[in-house]
Amino acid sequence: MALPPAGLLPGVLLVADALALVLLVPLVPVLAPLGMLGLWLEAALRLPILTVATWLLASRRPSGATAAAVTVAATPAVFGTFRHLLGPPGASPGLLAAAAPTWLGVTHAAATLAMLAWAAPPAPGGVPKTPGDVPKTPGGVPKAPGSVRRAVALTWEEWNVLGAAVLCLMLAVVGEMSGPYVTGKVLDAIGSGDGVTAGAVGMVAAAGATSVLFSGCRGSLFMLLMARLRQSLSLRLFSHLVHQDLDFFQGTPAAELLAQFSMEVPRVCRSVPAGANQLLRSLLMALVVGGFMVRLAPGLALLALLEVPLGIATRRIQTTRKQVRTSARTASGVQESVAAIETIRTFSAEEEEEEQHRWNLAKELRLKEQIELELAFFTLVHRVIELAIRVMVLFRSHQQLRDGHITPGVLVTFLLYQDRVGGHVQVLLYGFNEFLTNAAAGQKIWEYLDRKPTGNVGGTREPPELQGHVTFQKVSFTYPGNPERPVLKDVTFEVRSGEVTALAGPNGSGKSTAVALLERLRDPGSGTVLLDGIPLPEYEHQYLHRKVVLVEQDPVLFSGTIRENIILGLEHCKESELQEAATAAGAMDLIQGLEQGWDTEVGERGGRLAAGERRRVALARALLRRPAVLILDEALDDGDDGAAQRWVRTGLAQTVLVVSHRPRVLDGADRLVVLERGAVMETGTPAELRERRGAYSRLL
Fold this sequence. Notes:
Structural class: alpha/beta
Number of helices: 27
Strand content: 5-15%
């Protein structure tokens, strides 16, 4: 198993340290009487040899080599100092040069594992990015601290649920930590001959009941908190997005927006509650357990806690190696082959692609076998060192039991705590990074929430009546993505109240853009669009869209019944008005012919109805609102002769603007406006334009 260049560092440092310890053996009689000073002098004498050894790597010397040398030299001195301060009185710190081979093996094995973890390479090619990936700093910590801060602020809005959950968490920790302590006390009582009293049994039962009860409440409250946060953030994001301008939706893929709701919102809403649940619990448990262990047996505690960094190092190596597995999976060319299947068929390359895929699978299998062997090796090393430390703890505890420093109950309590502390420390280290990653995943969500719609979002005018007179005054427009090509150029025309005006022209002449400007889906680059002599931006946004209504060739219906789609937003309309609008739109025969009638489900996007039937329902929805301006974008068929004029005469619409290519529909209009290449070529009645034999005649 070949190590990368950085992996040479552990071997070089450990060989150099072994040489340094051999050279320091003659100085043991001089350094030993100095106590802690001698211990640190030994470290200082080992450091130059270790530093020189790192220089031997020359160009292959990895970054952080000097820091690694300092760590190897100073770690035994730090541990010896704590052991001396917390150990029994009179105990002197031992020099590493005079230590037993077992102790040397443990310390150097720990150093080797830690440095291998530090030198573990990233996966070749990196891990494929997903919609949930967030930028990270070189140290692996997610960026965007503002996202984390806002996720915390969002969670604080539910402070009552959060506070109750944290309270239950703290009480559950008290109950869980009391169990081993009470168990040790009961065992000491049995050993002393006092026997098990009702009070002792009650203490054990109380500790267990407290842990079980409040652990369940804690989990339920944190789940409730996540659900409420998800509802709140989803509603806030949706409400903000629906008020954005059209350019935003055209420039943002729909899949990206859907990913925010389906993936990122749950991650953000899970980050703080799950982080608080795991991290706060692990922090309290680690502090309480570590404190109890040091209080019960300081010497044993230092020895037992040596297992924690070893577990962290092995975990980091395993995590890094698993990233290679992901890269190996992505190395196969399945996605590329499927995407280019037509090309493969055209050139009869199926056999070559199959052989290439077989080779990729064989390579992936070999890499997986290597990964599993490496994981097995590192797991074995961790288990052996873990077993060695536990054997040393038991050996040392036997000595302390024999000398009367601890009781059997204290030993049982200590061992129960030892099984827990390593896991809680690892949860703290890895859970914190996971918390930052999940919280920072909301960076895009916060960007959307901070985004302001471009342009004028609307004024305040809401006149009680509108005549429906529309005027385009020297209107020009270009799309942001193609500023070199104007779509409308100095367009001027009128749509008179009480008339049906048709907008005609070849494809690409600007008809749909003119409709979008009248609907205020976009704003003109120059010029003005007026409604009853007032610029459109001065009208209140919702009022304008109630008065200017668009029906397209393929309208959108919502999941629900025909009735619900027609009365959308007008729940208090009269039944007579509903039937009048449906009759005028030609939808009444359709509705009466359906088994469920008005209560017929139209399906998603109206998929259970034919295209013509959807248009009838959409027309009825528009006429029910009695708009000042009704825009029909290819929404009339040849069989709808005179329908627009009837709607104007009956007051269902005051003004109608028709966009169509159908000659019969165009000839039925009161006035025609002919566009060509973004400019107005002709205006007048159909008869007048036919006589001129100009742009309208060419169009027909």
